[in-house]
Write a structure and sequence with these properties.
CATH architecture: 3-Layer(aba) Sandwich
Keywords: Methyltransferase, Transferase
Order of helices and strands: EEHHEHEHEEHEHHEHHHE
Number of helices: 10
Pfam families: Methyltransf_11
Largest sheet: 7 strands, mixed
Strand content: 15-25%
Distance between the termini: 38 Å
CATH topology: Rossmann fold
Protein name: Class I SAM-dependent methyltransferase
Number of strands: 9
CATH superfamily: Vaccinia Virus protein VP39
Domain Methyltransferase type: 72-162
Shape: globular
Strand order of the largest sheet: 5-4-3-6-7-9-8
GO biological process, one term: methylation
Helix content: 25-40%
């Protein structure tokens, strides 16, 4: 198994066929993520309407804006998104700094190309990937501009980056604190973050039916000092793992978003956002 040798000069095969960096002298990113986050996500991903809908939206977006070469899923966690993209027929390598997430991706999700490393410490070779995905990742990185600059170093001119992000600072709540977010994004904030290095090719909000519930049940109580602690079982309830009537209704309301994204239309309202940006061509 030598696929990682073209990806980075510092990677070597380790346990379970996962690639690890053998040199740790590169500075890592300051990333905020709960220690037990991967385990908690793995328990609900397959049954969650939220993860399911996000996967469908990402799949539709990538189909319309395909990668030119290997797609590196940075901060890919347990491999839920990467597994879907592989099933869609795209070549994907997952890069995840958490050992639990990388192990789940390799052993539970069956992904063949898994790297357990911080994005900076992995020292990905320039031009070794055709695209990079950061799916609900960049909001966890304190110095997100440094992350964007590293993306620009890794990608060739014209190479694509795919992202999903939580939207709107006014939706900030305890859920963001618990998740380890530094920020939520809008079209303007993301355009500013990418400015000079990437051109936005596609942007759309999504999860429109969740906008009002998140405002009323999360953001406003948080501003009032209420709901500062997340009760046990909240994640399972909010992700609708029981597939009750409310969840099935919500899924029907969400379905038109997928048709719009597949057709390349931009949705102007939503609690999250997805985007494609292209590395500016030099000169």
């Amino acid at each position: 198994m030598t696929w990682y040798r073209d990806l980075s000069p510092v990677l070597a095969e380790g346990v379970h066929g996962i690639a690890f960096p053998v040199a740790g002298d590169a500075p890592g990113a300051s990333v905020s993520y709960p220690e037990a986050g991967h385990g908690a996500c793995f328990d609900i991903e397959d049954a969650s309407f939220w993860f399911r809908h996000r996967n469908e939206a990402i799949s539709a977006m990538v189909r319309r804006h395909p990668p030119d070469g290997l797609l590196l899923d940075v901060g890919g966690g347990n491999g839920y998104v990467a597994q879907r993209l592989v099933r869609d027929g795209w070549p994907v390598a997952l890069l995840e700094p958490g050992v639990q997430g990388a192990t789940n991706a390799r052993l539970q999700r069956g992904l063949e190309r898994v790297v357990c490393a911080d994005f900076f410490q992995a020292r990905i070779s320039p031009g070794s990937v055709g695209a990079v995905g950061l799916f609900d990742v960049i909001e966890h990185v304190e110095d997100d501009r440094a992350m964007v600059e590293e993306l620009a170093r890794v990608l060739p001119p014209g190479g694509r980056v795919y992202m999903s992000v939580p939207a709107h600072a006014w939706l900030w709540s305890q859920a963001d604190v618990d998740a380890g977010h530094f920020r939520r994004h809008t079209f303007d904030s993301m355009s500013k973050l990418l400015d000079g290095l990437f051109e936005l090719e596609y942007w759309s909000y999504c999860f429109r039916p969740l906008l009002l519930p998140q405002l009323l049940l999360r953001a406003l109580p948080f501003r009032m000092g209420l709901g500062r602690q997340t009760p046990p079982g909240r994640a399972e309830f909010e992700h609708g793992v029981d597939r009750g009537l409310a969840v099935r209704t919500l899924e029907r309301l969400l379905r038109p978003e997928l048709d719009a994204i597949a057709a390349g239309r931009r949705l102007s309202v939503g609690a999250s956002a997805i985007l494609v940006a292209r590395r500016r061509r030099r000169g």
